[in-house]
């Protein structure tokens, strides 16, 4: 009888422990759900309203080599213009001074789709198949969105194929940040985009951290790039743009 009683008590303790564990799991799940509900949500339209507009930014580059951009030579800051041009009701072009031009269109769910990127200084036109969302229609804080596509790089005239490979893009809304600019302080929403290009003889990683003023557009952007050729880490660079003249509709 004592053995049976001990067994019953043990079963009771085990059952109670299981119930307590279940309740604890429910509490943790409930807390996680509440955190998810409390996470801020932003839309592509809030971050980057597509309309004919322009702004000026201070622009600094730092070109490095062999693994450390900090050892490179920093160019003196200059002021450059970023301009959004309406091609038609559904397509836009974003010109970044003289070095880059992006072709954009509206996509599913309010997303902003990057159709191509023309890199003037490198005589390169970069296109993905299918076109990939530069900004998803909606981003929830702390919940990244990853997409993949084929990528093709040609010269600007499209006559010579430089490389073809795989492309991965990860976009994450990482929170709020107060950004200091020559125009003052701005309460911004920060989006980090991580791109990976995988080609037969080389690969590249580009991390772009952009601080957006809701309803206006980018206030600050940092672009960190590293290129690996034939398995050897060979080149890094950093570019930083900070708003110097406010966005103005045109």
Descriptive account of the structure:
This protein has 250 residues and is α+β, with helices and mostly antiparallel strands. It folds into two domains: 2-38; 44-249, YmcC-like fold. Helices cover 16% and strands 63% of the residues. The protein has two helices and 15 strands. It has helices at 2-38, 44-47, and strands at residues 41-43, 53-65, 68-74, 78-86, 91-96, 100-106, 112-119, 124-135, 138-140, 145-154, 161-181, 184-198, 202-213, 217-229, 232-249. The strands form two sheets. Strands 2-4-5-6-7-8-10-11-12-13-14-15 form a twelve-stranded antiparallel β-barrel. It has a two-stranded antiparallel ribbon with strand order 1-9. Strand 11 (161-181) and strand 12 form a beta hairpin. Residues 6-16, 31-35 and 65-74 have low confidence and may be disordered.
């Amino acid at each position: 009888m004592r053995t049976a009683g001990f067994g019953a008590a043990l079963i009771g303790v085990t059952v109670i422990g299981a119930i307590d564990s279940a309740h604890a799991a429910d509490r943790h799940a409930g807390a996680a759900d509440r955190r998810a509900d409390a996470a801020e949500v932003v839309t592509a339209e809030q971050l980057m309203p597509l309309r004919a507009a322009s702004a000026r930014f201070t622009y600094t580059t730092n070109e490095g080599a062999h693994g450390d951009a900090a050892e490179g030579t920093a160019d003196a800051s200059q002021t450059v213009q970023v301009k959004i041009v309406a091609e038609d009701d559904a397509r836009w072009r974003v010109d970044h001074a003289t070095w880059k031009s992006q072709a954009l269109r509206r996509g599913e769910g309010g997303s902003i789709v990057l159709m191509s990127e023309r890199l003037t200084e490198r005589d390169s036109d970069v296109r993905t198949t299918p076109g990939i969302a530069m900004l998803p229609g909606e981003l929830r804080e702390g919940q990244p969105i990853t997409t993949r596509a084929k990528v093709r790089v040609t010269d600007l005239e499209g006559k010579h194929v430089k490389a073809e490979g795989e492309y991965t893009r990860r976009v994450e809304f990482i929170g709020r940040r107060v950004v200091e600019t020559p125009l003052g302080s701005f309460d911004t929403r920060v989006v980090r985009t991580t791109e990976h290009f995988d080609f037969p003889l080389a690969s590249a990683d580009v991390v772009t951290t952009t601080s957006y003023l809701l309803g206006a557009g980018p206030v600050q952007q940092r672009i960190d790039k590293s290129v690996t050729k034939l398995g050897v880490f060979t080149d890094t660079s950093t570019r930083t743009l900070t708003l110097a003249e406010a966005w103005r509709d045109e």
